[in-house]
Amino acid sequence: MSAFKTVMRYLMAFFFVAAGLNHFFNPEFYIKIMPPYLPWPVFLQYLAGALEIVLGAMLLIRYFTKIAAWGLIGLLIAVFPANIHMALNPHLYAELAPIAYWIRLPFQFLFIAWAWWFTRNDVEVAEDLNQQ
Length: 132
What we know:
Helix content is 78%, strand content 0%. It has helices at 3-25, 27-33, 41-59, 65-88, 98-117, 122-131. The longest helix has 24 residues, at 65-88. The chain has six helices and no strands.
């Protein structure tokens, strides 16, 4: 794994572990953004936080990097409805300007792409580039 990719893996791991811990330090925020049609909002927000911590930490263990990255992709897809809910209901979230919630949506896809990068090893990427 290249040095740059290793640094980015550590950065992503730090980001997700910190975000996951925040679910436990600031649960009210996450419960508030839970779409009302989802059952068990308290359980789901703690589950999301725990998964962010565990999967973020697993990114740092080379043996588990790929599975952790796929797990983070699944988690990012699973929490996307909360981001959409915030964008569609900015009146419920006065913390930021309404446009901020719309700007946030594309970043979810960047995080998914970032995680997907770790599902592939450098040899696969080099082979793909050589075939083009």
